[in-house]
Design brief:
Distance between the termini of chain B: 41 Å
Number of strands of chain A: 31
Number of domains of chain A: 3
CATH class of the largest domain in chain B: Alpha Beta
Number of strands of chain B: 5
Strand order of the largest sheet of chain B: 2-1-5-3-4
Helix content of chain B: 25-40%
Largest sheet of chain A: 7 strands, mixed
Oligomer: heterodimer
CATH architecture of the largest domain in chain B: Roll
Largest sheet of chain B: 5 strands, mixed
CATH architecture of the largest domain in chain A: 2-Layer Sandwich
Strand content of chain B: 15-25%
Distance between the termini of chain A: 61 Å
Order of helices and strands of chain B: EEHEEEHHHHH
Structural class of chain B: alpha+beta
Shape of chain A: globular
CATH class of the largest domain in chain A: Alpha Beta
Chain lengths: 817, 162
């Protein structure tokens, strides 16, 4: 064997070795009691405890689990984008070595009912019923039409080659505009290809626009791309026939939503369904939807009465993980000669594949584009038209920053164009038009309400951070040497901490509230169970900090448990930048309530006025002197083992649950601004991203280390969309780049250093004051990069308008090819 | 499929002999047959680096190496290199700098970074970015990973690197 474990080295991984300045070092057994925590953990860059197992490869992702009698399912998928299944013969496949069963869509439909993904508040949205495994017809390349279950995955894959299928190809609709023209209707029973349409116009729009001195208009294109989680989609369903119960180990962001869905579509009482999220290898919105192959896996577990696992391989991920953001949009901006923006006019077209995705629908992304375009600015006139159409490509749905990257890029590109036409500096143009910092609460023309934003503070901070003036001088100097650099700005607003206005009001059984249970253990440890899930962003870490402050203990005393519907309170999970803001407030309130209950016990034990006591650094102390009166381990001992020593009618309550729902505003908007600095090689069309900056206002920053890293990760995903990522389809609907060799994501070498700064305007809706931040980077980066490239190209009178900005597109814009 | 081949491999210091399907990849052998699930499968064709392991001291893609190719060789994974303490300094730097989020790419990152530290102890930040470009991360934006590796490279080394 290798060297034995060196305890000293492992100690180096423990939190006490980290260089966190304040509050006290999480207590080791040997060091003195941590000092009084006047400064809390909230606001400190505390490394997160749950990273340690991942650093040793000792996490447990769903694919790592092994069960007795575990069977493996693979799917036979349509090779055509649109085709009728004339014949499907599974008999030979079923006889292959190790194969347990092979089923078509009809057999699985007996156990799993189909779904229709519409929401009541998206008026007129329509979609056909979708089955776990398609019956008779496939509507995109990669749609599953049969399932093969075997003892090993290799055996199941071997059997795939023995499936006999005869297809009759049907007319394919892949182009958005063709879809909108309805020459071929994909689902004839729906009448046309329009899933959802929305139009909107402020009063007096035309008159206002007519008064403008300048109207600029451009059309922008956005390539469909996808999340590319490093861990692909994984589900392991384990049906217990004796109990008629189903336990699902699922790489998902929303375990309670999935519990409800498994229950309703598999006809198992909700109380008998338990969904457990082990470590999740990245989500970004990819893992918050209902996937037909995952529903089929759960149904197969019921059918075969044994555990069944499905792991998407990388090709399946590209063919079936939701795609997003295929848009073509024309936007007009009207302004006065002095630069004052009068209004925006938007016409957006987006294609979503053949089905609206359950249960959140594929109408939300376009809806967000309508809601958010023009968002940072103080204009009064706004008109928007939006069509969401069906096509024969993979489905699209909500991916990180849903709609924001489109809305921000449209807005910021047309803002830059207007500034250029007026000969104004883009930063000055924004300063003139950003909603004033003292104008809140503010009602935006699209109907959104902003509690309090800080656009001007963020702009000023950004310009200082990047040395905007210095960069402009450098840019001008380099231009004379034939080096073409560009600076791009992108202001943004972001939807976070959504209330039931997002889904609940539309009839979706998706929780907008979250809950936390906090329990003092007999040893003085604190266990905190939260309905928000962890997929690496550090949720459990920030809840540890909030809980430690709220109860009055050091963070090494807190254990957070998430991701198990059988254990945690009910809640929404992780999506729409809601985890820290909503779940964190529930933890704070639960922790405070536990602290109060601890003081009740201590007051009874010590026979003193409760108001003279406090909980600090793992002990009940005298509030005035700080003198220790009762360690929490003693409170636990008395509360659990010697309650007979407490007053007769006093019951110790050492477990507390609290919930939180944001209600005052539909969404707790945040704001921020990004800047990109690029160099364009006008001979090759290659773009080098030199620097990137982001100033973000997410209210209370619970952990700067985690927040900054989440913003950076988001920015790099946005850079991917702007520069590299696109799911390319042939005219026949064949995906052309279904591998990571062909579909490019940013590598370290492509990625610039990114500087982050904050303005903090805590939301007054909660005591914690935290707004969401997970999507900020992705929302603004594509717009900033686009503007930077176009700024670099300005001397050539060239502009790029279609993402991703490949060398080919840049050379075309330059007229070189 | 039934023509299994006998192979003797030293995995994390333990010598073992197994009959292995010739088509089985090393990463699947480690994960499925030995239960060493620390190394991960992601792109499945050698692009992303999540399956990086060490074969005879050199980093290799576990998804491009057949298990039988490791016959007579030494294989080290993140589990073994954690227990031996070899990765401890890097792991600490990654932890303090939050150079991981979901952790799925992390074992591969650590093994690649350790190879960089051994082979190019004087690497500049640009060279670190270049060397690490074969390992994809979708969460962090990379900067923290580069920072963590740079910190280890710039810290006078008395332990953790052999």
């Amino acid at each position: 064997m290798n060297d034995r474990i060196d305890p000293h080295r492992l100690d180096a991984l423990a939190p006490q070795a980290s260089e966190v300045e304040a509050p006290p070092k999480p207590g080791t057994t040997k060091t003195a009691k941590p000092a009084k925590t006047q400064v809390g953990y909230v606001g400190q860059s505390v490394p997160r405890a749950n990273a340690k197992r991942l650093l040793q490869g000792r996490g447990a992702y769903t694919d790592d689990l092994k069960f007795p009698r575990l069977a493996h399912v693979v799917f036979f998928r349509s090779p055509h984008a649109h085709a009728r299944l004339k014949k499907l013969d599974l008999s030979r496949a079923a006889r292959q070595p190790g194969v347990i069963a092979a089923f078509d869509g009809r057999a699985i439909a007996d156990y799993c009912t189909p779904w229709v993904a519409v929401l009541g508040h998206l008026k007129g949205i329509k979609s056909p019923p979708q089955y776990a495994v398609a019956i008779d017809r496939a509507c995109w390349q990669g749609e599953a039409v049969a399932a093969i279950v075997a003892e090993t995955r290799a055996q199941a894959e071997d059997a795939l080659g023995h499936v006999v299928a005869e297809w009759e190809e049907l007319p394919v609709v892949t182009d958005m505009e063709d879809a909108l023209a309805n020459r071929t209707v994909i689902h004839p029973e729906l009448g046309d290809n329009i899933c959802f349409a929305r139009s909107f116009e402020t009063e007096g729009f035309d008159a206002a626009m007519k008064k403008a001195d300048l109207v600029v208009e451009e059309t922008y294109g956005f390539g469909r791309h996808t999340g590319v989680t490093m861990e692909s989609r994984v589900i392991l369903a384990d049906y217990n026939a004796a109990e008629h119960s189903l336990t699902v180990y699922h790489a998902t962001q929303a375990p309670h939503m999935m519990q409800d869905i498994f229950s309703r579509h598999l006809n198992i009482p909700e109380a008998n369904v338990r969904v457990i999220c082990k470590d999740v290898g990245g989500s970004f919105g990819i893992k918050v939807h209902v996937y037909p192959d995952e529903m089929a896996t759960a149904a197969l577990s019921v059918m075969l009465r044994r555990p069944v696992k499905f792991v998407a391989d990388r090709l399946e991920s590209f063919l079936t993980d939701i795609h997003a953001r295929e848009h073509k949009a024309t936007v007009r901006l009207a302004c006065m000669k002095d630069g004052t923006i009068v209004g925006f006019d938007l016409d957006d077209l987006t294609a979503i594949g053949p089905y609206s995705v359950y249960p959140r629908t594929s109408g939300i992304e376009g809806n967000q584009v309508v809601n958010l375009t023009g968002g940072p600015y103080a204009h009064k006139a706004y008109r928007a038209k939006m069509n969401v159409v069906f096509t024969n490509k993979n489905v699209t749905c909500q991916y990180r920053a849903v709609g924001h990257p489109i809305a921000v890029a449209l807005t910021e590109a047309i803002v830059d164009l207007a500034a250029q036409k007026l000969g104004m500096d883009p930063a000055e143009f924004r300063r003139k038009n950003l909603i004033a910092d003292d104008a809140y609460p503010y009602s935006f023309p699209s109907g959104l309400k902003f509690e309090k934003l800080s656009h001007h503070q963020c702009l000023d901070k950004l310009l200082a951070l990047m040395d905007y003036t210095g960069l402009r001088a450098e840019q001008a100097a380099l231009r004379k040497q034939g080096i073409h650099r560009g600076i791009g700005l992108a202001a943004m607003i972001e939807v976070t901490n959504p209330s039931p206005a997002f889904y609940g009001v539309g009839g979706a059984r998706i929780s907008a509230q979250d809950g936390a249970t906090v329990r003092l253990e007999p040893t003085g440890m604190v266990t905190c169970l939260v309905s928000v899930t962890e997929q690496g962003q550090g949720t459990e870490g920030v809840f540890t900090q909030v809980c430690a402050d709220a109860v009055g203990v050091s963070i090494d005393k807190v254990r957070v448990i998430t991701g198990d519907t059988g254990v945690t309170p009910y809640g929404g999970g992780t999506w729409a930048s809601r985890g820290a803001g909503i779940g964190g407030e529930a933890v704070l309130q639960a922790g405070k309530a536990l602290r109060a209950n601890i003081l009740d016990i201590a007051a009874a034990v010590l026979q003193v006025d409760r108001a003279t006591l406090d909980v600090r650094a793992n002990s009940v102390v005298d509030k005035a002197s700080g003198e220790e009166r009762l360690p929490l381990a003693e409170v636990g001992r008395i509360g659990y083992f010697r309650p007979d020593t407490l007053p007769m009618k006093f019951q110790a309550e050492l477990t507390v649950t609290r919930h939180y729902t944001p209600r005052e505003y539909g969404f707790t908007f945040t704001n921020g601004i990004q800047a990109s600095y690029v160099e364009v090689d006008t001979d090759t069309g290659f773009v080098k991203l030199l620097r990137h900056w982001c100033v973000e206002d997410c209210g209370t920053v619970i952990n700067p280390l985690l927040v900054d890293e989440q913003i950076r990760g988001g920015i790099v995903q946005g850079i991917g969309a702007a520069m590299l990522e696109e799911c390319l389809y042939s005219a026949e609907g064949q995906l052309l780049n279904g591998s990571l060799a062909d579909y490019l994501v940013p590598m370290t070498g492509d990625t610039p250093d990114i500087e982050i700064a904050h303005v903090s305007t805590p939301t007054r809706q909660s005591e914690l004051g935290a707004k969401g931040v997970g999507e900020a980077g992705t929302a603004g980066a594509p717009g900033a990069v686009m503007n930077a490239i176009n700024d670099a190209l300005a001397p050539f009178d060239a502009r790029v308008r279609v993402q991703p900005f490949t060398p080919e597109r840049i050379l075309k814009a330059l007229g070189k090819i | 499929m039934e023509d299994r081949v006998e192979a003797t491999i030293t995995v994390n210091g333990t010598r073992l002999t197994r009959r292995i399907e010739p088509r089985m990849h090393l990463i699947d052998f480690l994960r499925e047959e030995l239960g060493l699930t620390g190394s991960h499968v992601s792109c499945e064709h050698g692009v992303c680096g999540a399956c990086t392991v060490r074969v005879d001291g050199e980093i290799r893609r576990g998804c491009l190496t057949l298990a039988v190719q490791a016959d007579g060789r030494t294989v080290d994974t993140v589990e073994g290199l954690s227990d031996s303490g070899e990765l401890a300094v890097l792991q600490q730097a990654f932890h303090e700098r939050n150079a991981l989020q979901c952790g799925y790419c992390t074992p591969g990152m650590l093994l690649t970074a350790q190879a960089l530290i051994k082979e190019h102890p004087e690497a500049t930040r640009e060279e670190i970015r270049e060397f690490m470009s074969g390992n994809l991360c979708r969460c962090t934006g990379y900067q923290a990973i580069i920072d963590a590796i740079e910190t280890v490279l710039r810290t006078p080394r008395t332990e953790g690197v052999r």
